[in-house]
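Listing S7. Sequence submitted for prediction.
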Amino acid sequence: MPIPQFQEFMTPALKALQDGSEKHRSKIEDFVAPILGLTPEERQELLPSGQKPIVRNRLHWALYFMYRAGLVDRPKRATYKITKKGLEALSSNKRIDVKFLETYPQFREFQNISHNNEKNGDVNIPNGNTFDPDESVINAIERANSDTRRDLLERLRGIKETAFEEICLELMKAMGYGIEKDRLFLTKKSHDGGIDGIVYVDALGLDQIYLQEKRYAADNKVNEKEIRDFIGALSTSPVTKGVFFTTSYFSDKAKEKAKAMHASGRFIKLIDGEELVKLMLEYNVGVRVTETYQRKEIDEDFFAEYE
């Protein structure tokens, strides 16, 4: 079951506080989780940034929005207490979401400040969005990166074969393979023996990885025969690891052939066009960072010194 959106956390969070006592956010999460049917695994699932669990992030924004509407107070760090407005909202049996919070003047004022910040170039806190603010920014960046991945794949399919091979070598280098520049190189076409590149993993060259690259159009898949040829090149050498890059995709039989090699102690990693451009974005090969966004929050440790 997908994790509920942050607005779905609002009513259960108020119910956790309805006894009037102060509760830490972690205790509220423990109360809310079974109401929303969240499993222990779902509670540990991280945002794409890998910095924070999704559940904790969505609960945080649910509580923060209700705080801005005056339904809860924050008497101390990460601790909440229901207000008279919150009790009234809970007893109304209405769906508590962003639309409901907009009935409170102080929340509308909060929204107006956020909208003015957007006009000044700041990241906007969304109005009525099903995603919390962090996820809205992440999703916007992901949409932009998705366009970049598509454009990057088209660019790779249009360059020369030798250039594509060099780019794959650059990617291996960016990922930390090859101790020095001359530890990664392309083979000469007339004597490559079915191998396009070689990577020396250690300084003495005792551990090597063979590379094969195929710059294909989107509809030209890598078939079983090409994997078999690559396996043949590995089998006649002491090398046990290989990486096969393509700008298209691998047929099911090609994947099965590569997987079957594992039983013999030889390992072939298949990287299709989709995975290739993801890796290039992750390791900044052929792309550059154009914008960096930072979301800042109060440093509670800083202010603790002044209390």
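Caption to Listing S7: primary sequence and predicted structure tokens for the chain studied. Residues 6-131 form a domain with the Arc Repressor Mutant, subunit A fold (CATH 1.10.10.10). The chain has two domains: 6-131, 155-282.
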